[in-house]
Amino acid sequence: MKPFIYDYTLEELQTWVKEKKQPTFRADQIFDWLYVKRISSFEEMSNIPKKLRDQLEEHFNFVTLNEITRFQSKDGTIKFLFELHDKNAIETVIMKHDYGNSICVTTQVGCRVGCTFCASTLGGLKRDLSAGEIIAQVVQAQQRLDKTNERISSIVIMGIGEPFENYDQMMKFLRTVIHEKGLNIGQRHITVSTSGIVPNIYKFADEKTQINLAISIHAPNDKLRSSLMPVNRRFPFEELLKACKYYIETSGRRLTFEYALIGGKNDKPEHAEELADVLQGMLCHVNLIPVNYVPERDYTRTPKKDIFEFKKILERKKINVTIRREQGHDIEAACGQLRAKHMELSTR
């Protein structure tokens, strides 16, 4: 299969046009057509010579994301289920905020991490996405927003899959979306979330970017975390905390810990006390997430009064904490839910 045009960075495009005996500024023009004008065919590149357009057509494919279905929430959240060229399906979500539009992108088809409260892991991991397939989610969402003169202002890499298990393609995606000649998304407006792939936390720290890092922690100790997140058996809690401290020291940036509150599992006052003790002295922020109900998992949501009590305990111990604002609750916008339903229907 021909490579996807979105898989090429500007530098790779510059090398490619040189090989075609074209001046390097042609690569800048192509990049502009892709990410600023956001066209969908090489024929639309009107300032590119016909011969070069033909060579682009011959050498590259555009990423095809066929919209299987789309839901829009009362709060403005839009959830897409896209079909890829190989008939696999992925999810992408646009979220509306007071400060702008955020997009949540997927990095893998499925997930092998196995968090017991998450729909993304149902069916396991099928394959990694290429950088271009991740980029295409942003471009296609932006094309939709172009119709109302809106812009994607922030990106969260929190969709289906574990981004740090597709590290190289994720980093390639990031280099393109932050490029000033491309989508030009500010680094501080991008957050990548990991379940705790320890070696790549160190690697990401050494990248010295301004991109935000979030760690899915979900428990205050090794035993409980292993029961909720099998990845903890590969990278134990103590090793994860060491990597987190290295990231903070190396980057100088605040780390976010995501904590999904699951009724009767990890949401008791003693869990809050223990979590606060574990995080004492760290430059961090805790984001409490009321768990979404997933029929296959059968976990219950923590009552609101218990959520606020958990928050108060952390605050009393001087831990910076917020409760995540729920969005798209009426359209099953939790990660993996729409894809799981699609997979079930496809196998009937």
TrEMBL record:
Name of the top EC class for this enzyme: transferase
Sequence ranges assigned to domain Radical SAM core in this UniProt record: 97-330
Keyword field: 4Fe-4S, Cytoplasm, Disulfide bond, Iron, Iron-sulfur, Metal-binding, Methyltransferase, rRNA processing, S-adenosyl-L-methionine, Transferase, tRNA processing
Keyword Iron-sulfur: yes
Annotated S-adenosyl-L-methionine binding sites: G161, E162, S193, S216, I217, H218, N292
Catalytic activities: adenosine(37) in tRNA + 2 reduced [2Fe-2S]-[ferredoxin] + 2 S-adenosyl-L-methionine = 2-methyladenosine(37) in tRNA + 5'-deoxyadenosine + L-methionine + 2 oxidized [2Fe-2S]-[ferredoxin] + S-adenosyl-L-homocysteine; adenosine(2503) in 23S rRNA + 2 reduced [2Fe-2S]-[ferredoxin] + 2 S-adenosyl-L-methionine = 2-methyladenosine(2503) in 23S rRNA + 5'-deoxyadenosine + L-methionine + 2 oxidized [2Fe-2S]-[ferredoxin] + S-adenosyl-L-homocysteine
EC numbers on record: 2.1.1.192
Gene Ontology MF: a single term: methyltransferase activity
Details of cofactor binding: Binds 1 [4Fe-4S] cluster. The cluster is coordinated with 3 cysteines and an exchangeable S-adenosyl-L-methionine.
Compartments, as annotated in UniProt: Cytoplasm
Source taxon at top rank: Bacteria
Positions annotated as active site in the UniProt record: E91, C335
Main location, first listed in the record: cytoplasm
An example Gene Ontology biological process: methylation
Residues given in the record as [4Fe-4S] cluster binding sites: C111, C115, C118
HAMAP family: RNA_methyltr_RlmN
Family under the similarity heading: Belongs to the radical SAM superfamily. RlmN family.
Function recorded in the entry: Specifically methylates position 2 of adenine 2503 in 23S rRNA and position 2 of adenine 37 in tRNAs.
Miscellaneous field: Reaction proceeds by a ping-pong mechanism involving intermediate methylation of a conserved cysteine residue.
Name of the protein in question: Probable dual-specificity RNA methyltransferase RlmN
Lineage: Bacteria, Bacillati, Bacillota, Bacilli, Bacillales
Gene that specifies this protein: rlmN
